[in-house]
């Protein structure tokens, strides 16, 4: 599945420089390419998550997830600069580079000899039945179900945070380069969090880590309203973003360890729907609040949102009573 998705993404992006070569590129082609590339990413990511538990042992999942987060965070720092440099070479250069990056991924996947799935009988099922099966399993697992909604609640603020930082920095008179520096500092915090996420998972209980990271995010977020300069914006967000990969490493590795191999793809697809499905609503609400009432009102609204979920998480008995990953069992 991952190989097919990467080949598909390479083909989709290759169509852009080819169209540019013949002066035939249109905005509609870009729309279609963005839709196809994004859709293939979802399938790739679900397959990647499902395969991880077959590549490493259950006890190694936190470290593996942490390494993935480190790579992702580093890419977030390098990609904007690299993209701009490639664009200076030529308008088609970033797309050509991306095509070769996907092909390199295909080659690397071909060298993996691990069986990604246990052998099981082939049974003809309808996609609706499979979706229902994934939803049913997740709904019966009280901890995983709550974590899906909690992750969705935290992601609900992800896009608004970016918008809020930009508006605050602009109000301070920061230049585009200085705004970029704010996000670079934030990304460094994310890398630091990813580097220590696996070790934290080993030393502390699941519930303690989840509750602590959610509370730290809730306490740091309102400080944005009092930041005197863009440097402080970067420091605050760097600390806040440090908690994000720690949370992700812990919840991801715990989740993957609990889900049966045969249901990895189905359950994780439902989990992703709940975890990321609320982001557009968060962005829309942030836009309305900032435009009509100002950025401080938006900060106040999302602060209340954070605190509500922090309290709910702290009192949730399934979170507080969760065992270490090696002792984790589905309920």
Summarize the structure.
With 331 residues, the protein is mainly alpha-helical. It has 14 helices and no strands.
Q: What can you see in these coordinates?
A:
The protein is an all-alpha fold and 331 residues long. The chain folds into two domains: 1-114, no CATH class; 125-321, MFS general substrate transporter like domains (Growth Hormone, Chain: A). Helix content is 79%, strand content 0%. The protein contains 14 helices and no strands. It has helices spanning 2-21, 27-55, 61-89, 93-110, 127-140, 142-155, 158-171, 176-203, 206-220, 230-258, 264-276, 279-293, 295-315, 317-320. The radius of gyration is 21 Å and the shape is globular. The two termini are 30 Å apart.
Structural class: mainly alpha
Instruction: List the secondary-structure elements in sequence, H or E.
Output: HHHHHHHHHHHHHH
- Portion of residues in beta strands equals under 5%
Number of helices: 14
Q: From the 3D structure, determine the CATH topology of the largest domain.
A: Growth Hormone, Chain: A
**Rough outline:** globular
| Amino-to-carboxy terminus distance | 30 Å
What is the radius of gyration computed over CA atoms, rounded to a whole number of angstroms? 21 Å
Q: On the 0-100 scale, what is the average pLDDT?
A: 85
- Assign the CATH architecture of the largest domain: Up-down Bundle
CATH superfamily of the largest domain: MFS general substrate transporter like domains
Helicity level: over 70%
Please report the first level of CATH classification, the CATH class of the largest domain.
Mainly Alpha
């Amino acid at each position: 599945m991952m190989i097919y998705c990467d080949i598909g993404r390479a083909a989709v992006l290759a169509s852009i420089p080819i169209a540019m070569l013949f002066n035939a590129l249109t905005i509609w082609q870009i729309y279609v390419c963005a839709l196809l590339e994004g859709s293939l990413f979802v399938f790739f990511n679900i397959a990647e998550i499902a395969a991880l538990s077959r590549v490493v042992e259950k006890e190694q999942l936190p470290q593996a997830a942490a390494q993935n987060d480190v790579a992702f965070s580093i890419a977030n720092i390098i990609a904007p600069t690299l993209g701009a440099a490639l664009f200076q070479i030529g308008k088609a250069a970033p797309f050509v580079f991306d095509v070769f990056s996907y092909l390199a991924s295909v080659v690397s996947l071909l060298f993996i000899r691990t069986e990604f799935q246990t052998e099981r009988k082939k049974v003809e099922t309808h996609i609706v039945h499979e979706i229902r099966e994934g939803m049913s399993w997740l709904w019966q697992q009280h901890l995983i179900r709550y974590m899906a909604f909690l992750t969705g609640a935290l992601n609900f603020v992800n896009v608004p945070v970016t918008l809020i930082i930009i508006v605050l920095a602009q109000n301070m008179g920061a230049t585009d380069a200085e705004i970029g520096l704010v996000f670079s500092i934030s990304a460094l915090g994310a890398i630091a969090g990813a580097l220590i996420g696996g070790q934290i998972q080993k030393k502390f209980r699941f519930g303690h880590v989840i509750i602590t990271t959610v509370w730290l995010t809730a306490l740091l977020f309102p400080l944005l309203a009092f930041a005197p300069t863009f440097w402080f914006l970067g420091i605050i967000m760097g600390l806040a973003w440090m908690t994000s990969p720690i949370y992700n490493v812990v919840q991801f590795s715990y989740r993957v360890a609990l889900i049966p191999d045969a249901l990895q793809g189905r359950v994780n697809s439902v989990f992703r729907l709940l975890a990321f499905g609320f982001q557009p609503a968060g962005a829309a609400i942030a836009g309305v609040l900032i435009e009509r009432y100002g950025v401080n009102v938006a900060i106040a609204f999302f602060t209340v949102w954070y605190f509500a979920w922090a309290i709910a998480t702290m009192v949730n008995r399934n979170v507080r009573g969760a065992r270490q990953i090696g002792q984790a069992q589905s309920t």
